[in-house]
Amino acid sequence: MPDQNIDPSHLETLDRDLGRLSTLEQATIYVSRPLIGLGVGLVFVVFAALLAALLFGQANNAFVVVVAAAFGAYMALNIGANDVANNMGPAVGANAMTMGVAIAIAVVFESAGALLAGGDVVSTIAKGIIAPENLGTSSAFVTAMMAALLASALWVNLATWIGAPVSTTHSVVGGVMGAGIAAAGFAAVSWGQMGAIAASWVISPLLGGLIAAGFLWFIKANIIYRDDKIAAARSWVPVLVGIMGGAFATYLAVKGVKKIVKIDLGDALLIGLAAAVVIWLIMIPIIRRQSQGLENRNKSLKVLFGIPLIVSAALLSFAHGANDVANAVGPLAAIVQASTTGDFTHAVGIPTWVMVIGALGISFGLFLFGPKLIRMVGGQITKLNPMRAYCVALSAAITVIVASWLGLPVSSTHIAVGGVFGVGFFREWDTERRMRKMKADMGQPILAPEERRRRKLVRRSHFMTIIAAWLITVPAAALLSGGIFLVIQGVMGAII
């Protein structure tokens, strides 16, 4: 539906607006993939356990390290299946790249981010949720981390199964909190830090949605609703791509290369500004050449946003690999250190083999199970085109920068999905606003409430499912982790 000519008779309902499986062959592949994936995933978990046994077979508590490696591999698979979809979903939903290309790009850049720029030091207890000394002994600490790792992996697995993109970092935090409470009581938890994380549940998606909606409004007002769309695009698309390039340069400087070099926010903003100017100047002749011969319609504009979307998806994947992987495999690294050295009160470096498990697990999880969530984020919440997907990707980078400046812990998952919601709800508001104006000009009655509900452009069932999953991620992971901690402690006590 062209945005510039809104005709009530041509407005598409949500079911027509969203893509669906349409052939028997596609449906067969969709059903059979999980069966293959389960087998390959199990092989990978066994491989991780054997690798740990090879490295620590003669060490004390080798069995604990082997089991923890299997749990860590399972967690990494779930990160690939759930978290990575947020980076690739908008570009795939906008048809800027195929599912196969998206998976290949994500595998390469997630792995590169984890191995080249992955966090080299994490707290032994994720993000300071619990003070390690409150757990008393290294044995209690290891048990708590084992419970946290398994519980967070199980929760992310469940969320993926029901089709809800959730924050793996929040899952780990909830797991650590629950195990800590089971081990040392409620007083062991840093409730101030938990309050900041809870605030991020609201701030992340709202900020991401508002920024994405703001850029979509700008694109509509300055390009789509102009009489000469191509001329407007020649002026504004280089600016928009420059803004995106500058935002991602700042984003990577702040979040993506901490292991290689430390850069403060002020210097990162200067780097981003320089990158934005350079990219803007480079894009002016490129956009002029790409726009030659294009028809003066919205569909023609999609060509101009294709390459920026692909690049943004790759950069988001690199930054995600550099940051979130370390958070997820941090408990495994802490278990390895506590089991082999007895030290559980100091920060722990993440060994290379642990990062390799994380990187490989994400790759396998994305390839085997990722398409479900990629389809969800990219095409089953609201219909995305390259302009809308551009706004989502840009909002992800800018929101992280703003959050770093404010010192707020935010979730990349919440930001990206919030951006998709923001774009979808803005489309609803803008469509209804223009429809009201058109009908008022023509002297026609406004649509009945039932008809207006039928024409909603955001699928409400997915919206409610995702919001509910976000709200219960930390408490659900905490309850699951606390229960697992008590079971492990009971089993160990019975063995001893």
Automatic annotation (TrEMBL):
Domain of life from the UniProt record: Bacteria
GO molecular function: phosphate transmembrane transporter activity
Pfam family, one: PHO4
Membrane disposition: Multi-pass membrane protein
Keywords, ordered alphabetically: Membrane, Phosphate transport, Transmembrane, Transmembrane helix, Transport
Zinc-finger as UniProt keyword: no
Location relative to the cell: Membrane
Cited InterPro entries: Phos_transporter
GO cellular component: membrane
GO aspect biological process, one term: phosphate ion transmembrane transport
Chain ranges passing through the membrane: 35-56, 62-80, 92-118, 138-160, 172-192, 198-219, 231-253, 265-283, 303-322, 350-369, 389-406, 412-429, 463-488
Family in the record: Belongs to the inorganic phosphate transporter (PiT) (TC 2.A.20) family.
Protein name (database record): Phosphate transporter
